[in-house]
Write a structure and sequence with these properties.
about 550 residues, alpha+beta, seven-stranded antiparallel beta sheet, four-stranded parallel beta sheet, globular
């Protein structure tokens, strides 16, 4: 809606019967920004509107002429249709953003030439929602429709479930998962594991609610009580973070999961660091409750009077509470002697190993929603936000994984990064280019689809589609970099060994559990001996119903 208002104002302010050039457009945009509260504007998009190169909706043309922008501002789908360009005459791509509150998604779709689809029509090729999805929700989607979440991803993104999962992986593979902080899920576990440490020193712990966001409900404590473990997770607080100008900071990293069968992960090459607004001090009784010192969430610091937006300095540097990865990599290399490729490799390793821990669960949930063996695992995609903290020893620690990272844009710096993440993620799907050759989905189709007759033909079509999709992703990758499967043979061998070890451990645990618990046949035989099976079993046949009423099992009709 914000963007649509600016477009309308730019159109209405243009000279009558005069085709403005780009210089006039830049001057006009500067005037609009000076008179409005909006902090960013896109010259190329304004120029396209002013010169009439974009297709206009005939139903809304009168609103442009009259200078009325309220109707357009209240209807983002109509705005997206107006911003759509005449890219080609191929079949249009439809996206449903009725359950999305971020205009950056609609603008990215408009830049790709996509159209808005009404949710009741069921014609959407892509559905974008802000909440997690279940298998039932996916089964209600139309044929060959993509959705921006994987079923089962909440196992990793919820604080308690994710802490339990990563804690288990660290216990089984301590060297591979050394980036996971010590996590305690129960009071008894905390007492048992920290008894010796509590006698030596007074460590600090951070308590996080299970489904909290934006720093809500997080606090520091030295002595977690039993009630502190109710629907929360307790972690060891990293008390020696790496400081920049005396301030604590962490990183927001964007990862794109394009498929789970096989697992395919892309990492965005840029991102931003979030800095606190007050200088860091080791936690004590006086400052433990000061969230401006210990928490890096933007939702907390934007309320501070000391918050400063990102600005570029005269020497090419950056200042502010948000800074780019390019600035951070240059800072680490010049000030700390840490090379960018080494640091970036450690970040990629954290993202891959974290997602490998939940790969089997994601694949199981995906197969539940898409039981067809020819499905290549590409009907879902997800943008994840990884929060990573670096300590004074240059050791990165994972803090949490967000399955719905915020896409709000409060500055031009935010918009440049987040719009690029969304637009390239949608581009990598290849919906417009690959939809004609995509294998049919196993869900109930909304219209008749000609499917291959044999299983071998379906699998061959899926294999060819996967090859074509890989070629499309390689061609469209600009700011994303594929980190799994890795192109480096050494990393590929290390990850393969880790995956095999995880599967062996999982198979061992399942066999041990089956040996420890009686089988279903043994349980049923015991119930039959005790006479309890007949009372537990429901009458399902006509003979069972007659027996339950005290009648003979069969009734023979009298002979005539």
């Amino acid at each position: 809606a914000t963007v649509s208002v600016l477009y309308c104002r730019a159109y209405n302010m243009r000279p009558v019967n005069q085709k403005p050039d780009k210089k006039a457009c830049e001057d006009l945009c500067a005037k609009i920004v000076q008179k409005s509260k909006y902090q960013y504007v896109h010259i190329d998009e304004f120029y396209a509107v002013l010169t009439g190169r974009l297709k206009e909706d005939p139903r809304k043309k009168q609103n442009f002429a009259r200078g009325s922008c309220k109707i357009l501002a209240a209807s983002p789908p109509a705005t997206t249709a107006i911003l759509r360009g005449n890219r080609s005459k191929r079949k249009p791509v439809y996206i449903d953003t009725s359950n999305c509150r971020y205009n950056v998604v609609r603008l990215a779709a408009a830049r790709l030439g996509w159209e808005e689809a009404a949710p009741e029509t069921g014609a959407a090729n892509i559905v974008w929602i802000d909440t997690s999805v279940s298998v039932d929700r996916i089964n209600r989607l139309p044929q060959n429709c993509h959705i921006n979440h994987f079923p089962g991803m909440t196992l990793l993104c919820r604080k308690v479930d994710g802490g339990r999962l990563l804690n288990k992986m660290k216990r089984l593979h301590p060297k591979a998962y050394h980036f996971v902080p010590a996590t305690y899920l129960s009071y008894d576990d905390y007492i048992q594991r920290t008894s010796k440490a509590r006698q030596k020193d007074q460590s600090w712990y951070i308590v996080k609610p299970d489904s909290g966001c934006s720093g809500k409900g997080i606090y520091l404590t030295q002595n977690p009580k039993r009630e502190s473990f109710e629907n929360t997770v307790v972690q060891s607080y990293v008390a020696n973070p790496l400081l920049i100008d005396g301030y604590k900071w962490d990183m927001r990293i964007y990862a794109l999961v394009l498929s789970v069968n096989p697992l395919k992960i892309y990492l965005y090459k840029d991102g931003f660091i979030r800095m606190c607004t007050e200088k860091y001090h080791v936690p004590d009784a006086n400052n433990a409750e000061n969230t401006f010192v210990h928490l890096t969430n933007y939702a907390i610091h934007k309320k501070s009077k000391k918050y400063v937006t990102n600005v570029e300095t005269s020497d090419g540097g950056e200042q502010g509470c948000k800074r780019s990865f390019s600035w951070l990599l240059d800072y680490l290399e010049t000030k700390k002697g840490l090379k960018a490729d080494v640091f970036w490799g450690s970040i990629s390793d954290i993202v891959v190993k974290t997602l490998l821990s939940v790969e089997d669960h994601l694949r199981y949930c995906y197969k539940t929603a898409f039981p067809d063996s020819s499905d290549v695992g590409a009907s879902c995609f997800e943008i994840l936000g990884f929060d990573v903290l670096v300590d004074a020893n240059l050791q990165p620690w994972i803090l949490e994984v967000n399955h719905a990272p915020s896409l709000s844009c409060n500055s031009s710096f935010d918009f440049a990064i987040k719009s690029s993440v969304v637009e390239e993620s949608l581009m990598l799907l290849g919906v417009g280019d690959l939809s004609a050759s995509s294998p049919p989905s196993s869900r109930m189709p909304s219209r008749p689809v000609a499917t291959p007759r044999t299983k071998a033909m379906r699998q061959e079509n899926a294999r060819l589609f996967a090859l074509k999709k890989d070629a499309h992703e390689t061609e469209c990758c600009k700011r994303f970099n594929r980190i799994y499967p890795p192109q480096c043979e050494r990393k590929a061998a290390a990850y393969s060994q880790l995956v095999a070890s995880i599967k062996d451990r999982s198979a061992l645990n399942q066999s041990t559990a089956s040996m420890a618990s009686p089988s279903s046949s043994v349980t049923l035989s015991i119930l039959r001996r005790c006479g309890g099976y007949s009372s537990l079993r429901r009458p399902t046949t006509a003979a069972d119903i007659r027996r339950s009423k005290g009648l003979p099992a069969t009734s023979k009709a009298p002979r005539l």
